[in-house]
Write a structure and sequence with these properties.
This protein has 22 helices and 22 strands. The protein is α/β, with parallel strands linked by helices. It folds into 3 domains: 130 residues, OB fold (Dihydrolipoamide Acetyltransferase, E2P), CATH 2.40.50; 255 residues, no CATH class; 244 residues, Metallo-beta-lactamase, Chain A (4-Layer Sandwich). An 8-stranded mixed beta sheet has the order 13-12-11-10-9-8-21-22, with no helix packed on it. Strands 14-15-16-17-18-19-20 form a 7-stranded mixed beta sheet. Strands 1-3-4-6-5 form a 5-stranded mixed beta barrel. Helix 20 links the parallel strand 18 and strand 19. It is globular and about 100 Å long. It starts with a helix and ends in a 24-residue tail after the last strand. It is a multi-pass membrane protein. InterPro entries: ComA-like_MBL (IPR035681), ComEC_N (IPR004477), Competence_ComEC/Rec2 (IPR004797), Competence_DNA_uptake (IPR052159), DUF4131 (IPR025405), Metallo-B-lactamas (IPR001279), RibonucZ/Hydroxyglut_hydro (IPR036866). This is DNA internalization-related competence protein ComEC/Rec2.
């Protein structure tokens, strides 16, 4: 009990300390003149308008590490200090079902703010900092071999395997590794540390011949090799775990003591948690310790030899990690089993030794080092070709078990990995397989669910009836290759158990509404497509929504309200979709402006009244006229806009209009994804993602209209 209380107090103190390092709310979105030091090599991003991203610390003492974008032509220099106007905000990311929580990752990774450099004032530009930084020293140490590896086609993967530097791995390569379940090989882990330990042990054995009385030379040399390599890899969580377990084993050898593997395992976990109590928020911590834990549980007291051991260990890891993969929403592919049977021995026995040998020989025998690097490069090319074949064999199965289902699956894994001879243990497959078939809630017949997804400064709304699904807009894409379809929409569809779209509506061609449409259509082809205006970059030809007929799904009416104006394009070409009727209705308006609102009032005013309104044009002052708001008379209005967006959406004057109307206001940038559930002809339930917030986040339940009262 005392240990538990001490651990809780320590974790709480650590959390308070990290929270105190966050950017003060009063400084968010404002220009701040600060000195900052470049801590990491600038990473070039973007295609059409390249820019650079890097980590930095600042002269604002209360502020921790920040992640900055630099939009000048030449990148900043590692280790140099600059004076500039910075525009910063707290760690923040999308909050949508199944989506990667970037804000959470930023905080637990040690960032206190993100932002960009607005104007460099050149006051101290180019001046190197004399303050020691382990991170800068690490990058300078590995700078020469990193640059040397760039000459090889697979240099990005080689840098990831050697230095845990994954910044240059392409999205296509990441997708291949994820499809085949081999992305874990890109993280410095036990396999890497184990190989370095053996090399250090070998050097120690050679040294013993010259110093016969130095009995501890072998374990000390092996440990020194491991520490140096772990430092080069940046002491990631899997590296910390492997390093601690190696240290315990070497210490036991040196002291001639027996220490069980379970003692080493839990001590490694304790050390990692002491170093960083927030580590459990990282997927690497969970997968690393889960994989080692199931292997120890499965092989305790048993020995495996040869290929049978590899087959068994791979089977154990696949089975053991299923509940963890489900809880993190990572999906699973049957192709991962054969892919890892090939990849693990190839990387561990051939590729890594070639890379390590080349790294050691590079300063003293460059010719041989290049030969070893070339061998590793060729083997990586062959590996990716084989993984490409395996990836086509079976698609990733997305599953999102409930807490109960995942808990039962964990118990099932423990039972399945018991030694042979346990009667009827095969029955444990039932709860394990049931995890893949957890029923996903759907609206009852005649009911309607409308989910406004958090896609930043963009729109994506999912409409569900009992048997059908409609998606209104897909959100933006960016020049860096990032898009909201892959990041938010597809994970949300998987979470809701939707594997097909009956209808996709692209209100108009603007990038924040239809930018991610090509990425979505490449993964899931809608049965029918409606567009507000022609969109040339699509592989499908859509019907114009303005002339479309109304229809009914599961008792729910759908109707496009005609907004056709002469030569309308862009915002005013937006599809306006009315879903439902009476007290169970939602009006989706795209980016229509005051001119179209007046047209709707003149021609179809009787159809505008709706319970929920997607605010026109994200709440811009060019829309939401008083007459239009009065005609719709929404009890709920949602603004699909990014937090602290540069457009000032929603405008304060617009908020005041909705306030006077008596509407309750929602903001995806503040509340995350918002779901409205209509049952039996009325709005019965509202759920929003940030109702459950992390302790380091500011409350999401504050009012943005004076009448707003948060349900949370």
């Amino acid at each position: 009990m005392v240990a538990f209380l001490l651990a809780g107090a320590y974790a709480a103190s650590y959390g308070l300390w990290r929270s105190a390092q966050l950017l003060p709310l009063a400084l968010e979105g404002k220009d701040i003149s600060l000195k900052f030091r470049v801590l990491t090599p600038p990473e070039q991003r973007g295609e059409y308008r390249p820019y650079y991203r890097f980590d930095a610390d600042t002269d604002l003492k209360s502020l921790g590490r920040v992640r900055l974008n630099w939009y000048e032509e030449k990148p900043p220099v590692l280790g140099h200090v600059y004076q500039a106007q910075l525009r910063l905000k707290r760690p923040y990311g999308y909050r949508s079902p199944g989506a990667f929580d970037y804000g959470r990752w930023l905080f637990v990774s040690g960032y206190s703010a993100t932002g960009y450099v607005r104007r460099s004032e050149n006051l101290t530009k180019g001046e190197a900092s004399n303050v020691f930084s382990a991170q800068i020293s690490r990058y300078r140490l590995i700078a020469a071999p990193r640059a040397h590896l760039d000459r090889y086609p697979n240099g990005a993967i080689m840098k990831a395997l050697l230095f845990a530097d994954r910044s240059d791995i392409s999205s296509a390569q990441w997708q291949l590794f994820q499809q085949t379940g081999t992305s874990h090989l890109m993280a410095i882990s036990g396999m890497h540390i184990g190989m370095i330990l053996l090399w250090g042990w070998g050097f120690g054995r050679v040294a013993v011949f010259f110093f016969p009385r130095a009995l501890l030379l072998r374990p000390l040399t092996a440990m020194l090799f491991c520490v140096i390599y772990a430092a080069m890899a940046g002491f990631t969580v899997p590296t910390q775990r492997a390093l601690v377990m190696a240290a315990i084993g070497l210490l036991a050898y040196g002291l001639r003591r027996h220490i069980s593997v379970w003692q080493a395992y839990f001590l490694a976990m304790l050390v990692v948690l002491i170093v960083d109590p927030l580590a459990p928020h990282q997927i690497g911590f969970n997968l690393s310790f889960a994989a080692v834990g199931v292997l120890l549980w499965a092989f305790q007291g048993r020995r495996q030899r040869g290929g049978g051991g590899l087959l068994h260990s791979q089977w154990v890891v696949v089975i053991g990690l299923l509940p963890v993969l489900g809880m993190w929403g990572l999906g699973f592919s049957l192709a991962s089993f054969p892919a890892n049977l090939l990849a693990i021995p190839l990387v561990g026995l051939l590729i890594l030794p070639s890379l390590f040998g080349g790294l050691l020989l590079l300063p003293i025998w460059p010719g041989m080092a290049n030969s070893l690097f070339a061998v590793a490069d060729s083997l990586l090319t062959c590996l990716q070709a084989a993984l490409g074949i395996a990836g086509q064999w079976h698609a990733i199965i997305q599953f999102h078990p409930s807490v109960l289902a995942a808990s039962l699956a964990l118990v099932a894994v423990v039972i399945l990995l018991l030694p042979r001879g346990i009667p009827a243990k095969w029955l444990a497959f039932v709860p394990l397989l049931a995890m893949f078939y957890c029923p996903v809630p759907r609206p009852a017949k005649g009911d309607l669910w409308a989910t406004v997804l958090d896609v930043g400064q963009g729109v994506a709304v999912l409409i569900q009836t009992r048997n059908t699904s409609l998606l209104y807009d897909v959100g933006p894409d960016f020049s860096s290759g990032f898009n909201s379809a892959d990041a938010v929409v597809l994970p949300a569809l998987a979470t809701y158990g939707i594997d097909r779209l009956d209808t996709l509506v692209l209100s108009h061609g603007d990038r924040d509404h239809a930018g991610a449409a090509p990425a979505l259509i490449a993964k899931i082809t809608p049965t029918q497509l409606f567009v507000g205006e022609p969109i040339s970059r699509l592989s499908l030809i859509g019907k114009r929504c303005h002339q479309a007929d109304s229809w009914t799904w599961d008792g729910i009416p759908f109707e496009f309200l005609s907004t056709s104006l002469p030569n309308s394009s862009g915002n005013n070409a937006s599809c306006v979709l009315k879903v439902g009727e009476g007290a169970a209705s939602i009006l989706l308006t795209g980016d229509i402006e005051a001119e179209v609102e007046r047209h709707l009032l003149e021609s179809q005013a009787s159809k505008l009244n709706s319970t929920v309104l997607l605010a026109p044009h994200h709440g811009s002052k060019t829309s939401s006229t008083r007459e239009f708001i009065a005609a719709v008379s929404p009890s709920e209005v949602v603004f699909p806009a990014a937090r602290l967006n540069s457009y000032g959406h929603p405008a304060s004057s617009v908020l005041q209009r909705y306030e006077r109307q008596g509407s309750r206001c929602w903001h995806t940038g503040l509340h995350g994804t918002i779901q409205y559930r209509f049952r039996r002809g009325e709005l019965s339930e509202i759920n929003y993602a940030r109702a459950r917030r992390y302790y380091w986040e500011e409350p999401a339940g504050f009012e943005i209209c004076l009448k707003f009262k948060s349900e949370g």
